[in-house]
Design a protein that fits this description.
Blueprint (H helix, E strand, L loop, with lengths): L1 H24 L6 H8 L3 H7 L3 H22 L6 H11 L5 H13 L2 H4 L1 H27 L9 H21 L6 H15 L6 H9 L2
Helix pairs in contact: 1-2, 1-4, 1-6, 2-3, 4-8, 5-8, 5-10, 8-9, 9-10, 10-11
Keywords: DNA-binding, Repressor, Transcription, Transcription regulation
InterPro entries: BetI_C, Homeodomain-like_sf, HTH_TetR, Tet_transcr_reg_TetR-rel_C_sf
Organism: Nocardiopsis alba
Length: 211
């Protein structure tokens, strides 16, 4: 068991080095030698755990999505649902250095989903999981009479996911136009349109500005 645990831990260390290197150099310019240098080990040690760059990249993407899932699961699922939806969505935005690094790497990996079937599968599963989560949250809001009349939870969940991805891209590529507070405010305004009046909107927006 300890040997297996050490093996798994080393694979995670390699994946973390991959993320840091790709965030700094870009995916196309990152080599196994770069990752070994980042770790302070030999290329042979990296290849001991990942025989090719492709297998390492796929593991790195899995690691990236797993960290995002852990953040979502750590959100306390307490009402009001409007604020729960906001807090869940906020975990997916690059609002701190750790998430900025991860989501910069996510942007680097994203084009690979067009040509790599396995990467496409992982990305599709992660996207569907997020949409399904927001669908459940919005469906619960509809049952409680909190969702605006006539809205479909599944369709609004897809729109919310698209908004989050768009805000992420612009925060990372146009930070002067889309700062952290700007993204939080846009997310709040979008959710305000989905939910019926129940809480004071100004109070919610003030809380959102505090992140």
């Amino acid at each position: 068991m300890p040997r297996t645990a050490d093996h798994d831990e080393r694979r995670i260390q390699v994946a973390e080095a991959l993320l840091r290197t790709v965030a700094r150099k870009g995916l196309a310019r990152t080599t196994l030698a770069d990752i070994a240098d980042e770790m302070g080990v030999s290329v042979g040690l990296v290849q001991r755990y990942f025989r090719s760059k492709t297998t390492l990249l796929r593991f790195g993407v899995e690691h990236l999505y797993r960290r995002g899932e852990e953040r979502l699961l750590a959100v306390d699922p307490v009402p009001p649902i409007h604020d729960l939806a906001y807090r869940l969505a906020l975990t997916l935005l690059p609002q701190d250095e750790e998430r900025r690094l991860e989501l910069t790497v996510w942007l680097e990996f994203l084009p690979a989903t067009v040509t790599d079937p396995e990467m496409a599968r992982m990305h599709g599963e992660a996207t569907r999981a997020v949409i399904d989560m927001f669908t459940r949250v919005l469906a619960a809001a509809r049952e409680r009479g909190e969702l605006a009349e006539g809205l479909d939870p599944a369709e609004e969940a897809r729109a919310l996911d698209a908004l989050i991805d768009g805000l992420t891209m612009h925060q990372l590529t146009n930070p002067d136009l889309y700062g952290d507070a700007d993204s939080r405010a846009m997310l709040r305004r979008h959710l305000d349109r989905l939910f019926t009046a129940g809480e004071d909107t100004d109070e919610r927006n003030t809380e959102g500005d505090r992140g």
